[in-house]
Design a protein that fits this description.
This protein is α+β, with helices and mostly antiparallel strands. 54% of the residues lie in helices and 9% in strands. It has 3 domains: 117 residues, lambda repressor-like DNA-binding domains (434 Repressor (Amino-terminal Domain), Orthogonal Bundle), CATH 1.10.260; 68 residues; 138 residues, Beta-Lactamase. Strand 3 and strand 4 form a beta hairpin. The two termini are 40 Å apart.
Length: 440
């Protein structure tokens, strides 16, 4: 703690001096404006005197900045953003031990760098979302078909009018009428398509999203928690919310999800789960054995516990994603096939055998995650019926859930979709990437 205070005080004096020099102000003029002696300011700038809150506020006013910036540098948030930006460039070793000095001396450039980091991350997510839509979205396919159909009709009618000189006036008027109607249809279809691409929220609100996406959007808006289940009338309140979803299919999926969530909650309430986690009992298999629950039910509870930072993906035997709770830094596709290297799919081939892995998704964040995957099989019609398999992958940020250690240092490089994954030499690549390729 003393070292931290000394560092902060030392940085304050340096920041005052750097700010004054950047503004081209003389030491004596700043001291006079702040109501202190020039000798006192000189001692402050050379870190030989501590500066009180009142004097610091007057100096900040003269220097046209915030006293908090002079007292604490650029602030913890900006420092964290700069560290995150530094971690996104493999092979480059920035001077992290001088990051506070950089942010304090050049707060403007530091803010620009942090903003560019956030902008790049935002664009990366946008590319992923648009890739999913352009590749697999059935609603986008239907919209494109409508535009192309209207365009073909306009072209055909225009060709008849241009190439035929002796058209009966009545038929010519009819062709003109058709041309006008098809042009209107083309314009309307194009506007709807642009609106759909520009705004995923608008698409959901308009009922253009897939039913599963509607349910997940509703859960995301709630922060992925269903705390109402602890109240007697909570289930009725949640069902009423689900009843407001746009499509009948989404309402049906949402109701099924809530019934399953309620059953999981009754068997393992929030209080019991939190007590177990506080005691260090965070292994889903051990929790399932203790409470007599399926492992997938415990994983759902861990992901939906209020405040949980864990992500969750569930798929069936075909590999179709049935549920997706994302976690920052781990991109989950909205449609189509996901990365075949996900431990989730390895678990499908090994029912009831756990798969524990340390993974690093492709992207700028370079964050690592511990994944716990397992597959459960059901026989709803007995031996004579089909075997139904569901696999789940719990996604745990490494820096938060260090207890889930796979016991080795091997890191599995994974992605979201081949089309936007920059890992050029991935052995599981199915198609070229549209992103700039980089060596792994």
């Amino acid at each position: 703690m003393p070292n931290s205070q000394t560092s902060s005080a030392s940085l304050t004096g340096s920041l005052i001096r750097e700010r004054r020099l950047a503004l081209g102000l003389r030491q004596g003029d700043v001291a006079q404006a702040a109501g202190i002696s020039a000798s006192y300011l000189n001692l402050i700038e050379h870190n030989r005197r501590r500066v009180g809150t009142e004097v610091l506020a007057r100096l900040a006013g003269v220097l046209g900045t915030d006293s908090a910036i002079l007292a604490e540098g650029a602030g913890g948030v900006l420092i964290d953003d700069l560290r995150a930006a530094a971690a996104t460039t493999p092979g480059v070793q920035p001077e992290l031990d001088r990051i506070e000095d950089f942010a304090g001396r050049f707060p403007g450039w530091a803010a620009v760098l942090a903003a560019q980091h956030h902008r790049a991350a935002q664009l990366e997510r946008a590319v992923g979302a648009l890739n999913d839509r352009l590749t697999h979205d059935p609603h986008l396919s239907a919209s494109l078909h409508e535009v192309l159909s209207a365009l073909a009709s306009v072209r055909s009618t225009a060709a008849i009018l241009a190439d035929t000189d002796d058209i009966d006036p009545e038929w010519r008027a009819r062709f003109h009428r058709n041309l006008h109607q098809d042009s209107e249809r083309l314009a309307t279809g194009a506007e709807a398509l642009v609106a759909y691409l520009d705004g995923p929220e608008t698409a959901v609100d308009a009922g253009l999203a897939a039913p599963q996406e509607e349910v997940e959007s509703w859960l995301s808006a709630r922060g992925w928690q269903l705390s109402e289940l602890a109240r007697q009338e909570g289930m009725d309140l949640l069902m009423a919310e689900v009843g407001g979803l746009a499509s009948a299919a989404a309402r049906s999926l949402g109701a099924s999800f809530l019934r399953q969530a309620e059953a999981d909650f009754r068997l393992l309430p929030d209080a019991a789960l939190r007590h177990a986690l506080e005691a260090g009992e965070d292994d889903p298999c051990l929790l399932a054995q203790r409470h007599g629950l399926p492992v997938l039910a415990v994983m759902r509870r861990l992901a939906l516990l209020p405040g949980s930072q864990a992500g969750l993906v569930i798929c069936d035997a075909s590999g179709t994603l049935l549920f997706r709770k994302p976690v920052d830094g781990f991109a989950l596709p909205r449609f189509g096939a996901a990365c075949p290297l996900w431990p989730l799919f390895a678990a499908l081939t090994r029912p009831m055998l756990p798969v524990l892995a340390l993974v690093e998704p492709a992207g700028r964040s370079l964050r690592k995650f511990r994944t716990l995957s397992i597959c459960e099989a059901r026989l709803p019609q007995g031996f004579a019926g089909p075997v139904l398999r569901e696999a789940a992958m719990l996604i745990l940020p490494e820096e938060v859930y260090r207890a889930a250690d796979p016991g080795h240092g091997a890191v599995l490089a994974i992605g979201s979709s081949c089309r936007i994954c920059p890992r050029a030499r991935c052995p599981a690549r199915r198609e070229p990437s549209v992103m700039a390729e980089a060596a792994v």
